[in-house]
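**User:**
Everyone, produce one record:

**Assistant:**
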Amino acid sequence: MLFQNPWRDPALPSWVAEEGGRIVGFMGIVPRRMLLHGKPVRVAVGCQFMVDPDERHSLTALQLLRKFMSGPQDIALADGAREEAGRLWKAAGGRISALYGLHWVRVLRPARSLLQLIASRGRLGRLAFLGAPMASLVDVCATRYGPLRPKPQLDEEELDARALLAGIEDVSKGLALRPSYDLGTLEWLLEQVKTKKRHGAFHGRLVREPDGRVAGWFMYYLNGRMSQVVQIGARTQRFEAVLEQLFHHAWSRGAVALEGRMEPRLARVLSERHCFFHDRASVTLIHARDPAMLHPLVEGDAFFSRLEGEWWMRFSGDAGADGTFSDGRGRRAPARVVVPAH
């Protein structure tokens, strides 16, 4: 993923921090291509940011971030960061995109969702188990007869790279900042996303009108708790219908709830479809030498889904809340940042 991706660029390497011959920190970088007002820009996406826990009070993390930001890219970003990484990012001279740090949630099975919350409270887990049969009955009533009932109206088929390329080009053409893909890069990207199992089983669907015209598409990971939306796109005036198709697809396969990143221009539609918003999942970090380049990411004028950033790239397992890993060794002299072997 880091060394064999179709955008690889020797001028934008990943970085490691060494101390006394051992690695104490790492910052992965994946180059991406985007268009800003129709002109190509070079984007560097940071990922897999890790620092040895024994070095968390040193300058290692800050050194890695500054090395990343000083690269030749036009825009640097990371969209899977925790609040601790956000504070470091700002200390290194970066900014936080408030809009693209928001997330929406749509509950599909409210009773089961509540039981899962109760079960996470430790001693109340047995109470949640006993309430499962009643919760199932409540959810049947809520989703078949209540306002949460999905109302699919369109047809679906498997989403492939060619259809996704045409859809992204059509939907994003009026936005200031948008991705620049070709068929080869999207084929590679879709294949990579499908192999990730961290959030569950991947589903990608193309949505068509009854007359065969493409209305939009959606991609998400299905699991038994909070299923995660990677990307959703739709033609003008058809976002609500595509959203309903997504809700029904996930609900019919047992999803309890869906979560996705905010689409600022579509906030009203999401709200009308009984979604609520929060900023607790992660923050989106941005940086550019020319502040004007960041306006689309600050003002909500970008096509920037989880597919375009770091979120889907994480390796298996969760890093700690501060983005650190542990090797059990003690601290030594200050680290130095070096280029890894390619």
